Amino acid sequence: MSVTSQIELYYDPYDADIDVDPYPVYRRLREEAPLYYNEKYDFYAVSRADDVERVLTDHQTFISGRGAILDFIRADIEMPSGMFIFEDPPVHTMHRKVLHGVFTPRRVAELEHKVRAFCASSLDAVVGSDRFDFMADLGSLVPMRTIGMLLGIPESEQETHRHDTDRSLRAAPGEQLAPQEGFADGSSYAEYIDWRAEHPSDDLMTDLLNAELEEADGTRRRLTRAEVLTYTTLLASAGAETTGHLIAWSAVALGRHPDQRRELVEDSSLIPRAIEEVLRLEPPAQQFARWVNRDVEFHGQKVPEGSVILYLIGAANHDDRRFPDGDRFDIHRQNVKHLSFGFGAHYCLGSALARLEGRIALEEILKRIPDWEIDIANARMAPSPALRGWDSLPAFIGT
Ligand code: HEM
Q1: Could you read off the pLDDT of 299-311 as tens digits, one per residue?
Q2: Minimal-distance CA residue to ligand 1 atom 9
Q3: Per-residue pLDDT for 172 more than 80?
Q4: Tens digits of per-residue pLDDT, 198-221?
Q5: Number of folded domains in the chain?
Q6: Residues with CB under 6 A from ligand 1
Q7: Can you give the residue range of the structural domain that contains 249?
Q8: Which residue's CA is minimally distant from atom 25 of ligand 1?
Q9: 348 C-alpha to center of ligand 1: Å?
Q10: For residue 333, what are the contacts with CB-CB under 8 A and spacing of at least 6?
Q11: What's the CA-to-centroid distance between 5 and ligand 1, angstroms?
Q12: Name one GO biological process term (predicted).
């Protein structure tokens, strides 16, 4: 028996020590307890890629309608209609379709030059210096600016919205998430929405204000103001901090692997693949939750109706059964079907935008900063049981 297997296997998403490097615990979960039960917080967890996909494809058994985050399920808060990440088909399908209809590949593609210009100007400011904070100086800024560009929010207001959304998924180390005021009802965007309704333009907010929703009986109607607010809040809360962490994790992974970083400097066509590998290796969202709607079995063990089950993205993405030598960072992996954007009906609606931001940020970084070393002693992780990433990620740079 190995030394590790004598130590009791324990996992919870609030444990800041586990969060520093959860992968050894994930490995034990996959091998020793592929269906894990945590008594303290009363939840089950699946960690193998196949089991995670099974949870995400069976939306009759594993439902999102009571909240898809452990703390939100426990808090039993009522989410407004249209917060479709916390809904189930057929209502989920109806609401998702509206956003899908306006959040088009064209809308995403036309952001490319604006995102690039923002990254370039943020990075130009540090050329010549020997320090750079990948999170504070870039990762925490790009996603909210991008969502602002998408929605047409004036620049002067974007910083306020970033702070509001970051707070919505934060908790002190070891503590549970408390849904913030304004998170679910979108009140922090109300003023902008009213202004945009009076000043239509070529942006996603104007499209939302004009969008039509098809009710179950086939009738069509415009969205209510409350629904527009809800959609806006969903976009900002799902797409801001997650994507910032992607940018920061790219810096960490390539800081640890200078040989692969040099390959990217020499051949930028490898960058999209490197972003996929960063997403796989260091997923910004580590887990989501589902409510179990009827008794079900995993590996011969019963999960009773009324339980909460977590699907562990970080664990599934390192599953050697699917990704040989899963803990190894390798930008040359082929067909990386990671679970960082979920799977099935709730598959991330912003994945194309997140990939675009990650790619452009990395392209612009590597053009100016070919060489860096993360100053890990002074880096600080962001406290959140839902997401895993950095508040501060300083580096010594060679520009
Ligand atoms: C690297 C960045 C991102 C990661 C890791 C990520 C991850 C995820 C995951 C895992 C889900 C599925 C949740 C579940 O199964 O309950 C999801 C859903 C979603 N994401 Fe993302 N996301 C990212 C960026 C974005 C962006 C940029 C946007 C939009 C601006 C966005 C909008 C959404 C929306 C609207 C949903 C709900 C989809 C549904 O329930 O049908 N995400 N995301």
Answers
A1: 999 999 999 999 9
A2: 341
A3: no
A4: 999 999 999 999 999 999 889 999
A5: 1
A6: 64, 68, 84-85, 96, 147, 234-235, 238-239, 242-243, 246, 283-285, 288, 340-342, 346, 348-350, 353-354
A7: 3-398
A8: 239
A9: 4
A10: 273, 276, 277, 280, 323
A11: 35
A12: cholesterol catabolic process
Give CA–CA dist 57/44, Å, rounded: 17
Q: How many residues does the chain have?
A: 399
Average pLDDT over residues 223-251: 94
Q: Whose CA is nearest to atom 17 of ligand 1?
A: 348
Model confidence pLDDT, tens digit, residues 357-388 = 999 999 999 999 999 999 999 999 998 888 99
Instruction: Please report, rounded to a whole number, the percentage of residues in the chain having pLDDT higher than 90.
Output: 81
Q: Which of 106-115, 156-165, 197-206, 244-253 has the lowest average pLDDT?
A: 156-165
Q: What letter represents residue 33's amino acid?
A: A
Pocket test for ligand 1, best of 276, 340, 348 (most atoms within 8 A of CB): 348
* Token couple for 300: 């011969």
Query: Residue 344 CA: which ligand 1 atom is closest?
Result: 15
Average of per-residue pLDDT across 156-171: 58
Six token digits for residue 50:
């196949």
Please give the Cα distance from 103 to 227 (Å, whole number).
16
CATH of the domain at 71: 1.10.630.10
Residue range 6-61, pLDDT digits in tens: 789 999 999 999 999 999 999 999 999 999 999 999 999 999 999 999 999 999 99
Cβ-based burial of 201 (10 A; exposed 0-12, middle 13-18, buried ≥19) = exposed
Rg over alpha carbons for the chain, rounded to the nearest Å, is 21
pLDDT at 173: 58
List the one residue out of 354, 355, 364, 375 whose CA is nearest residue 138: 364
- If you write DSSP's letter for every residue of 122-169 in order, what string do you get? HHHTTTT-SEEETIIIIITTHHHHHHHHHHT--HHHHHHHHHHHHHHT
CA of 240 to the centre of ligand 1 (A): 10
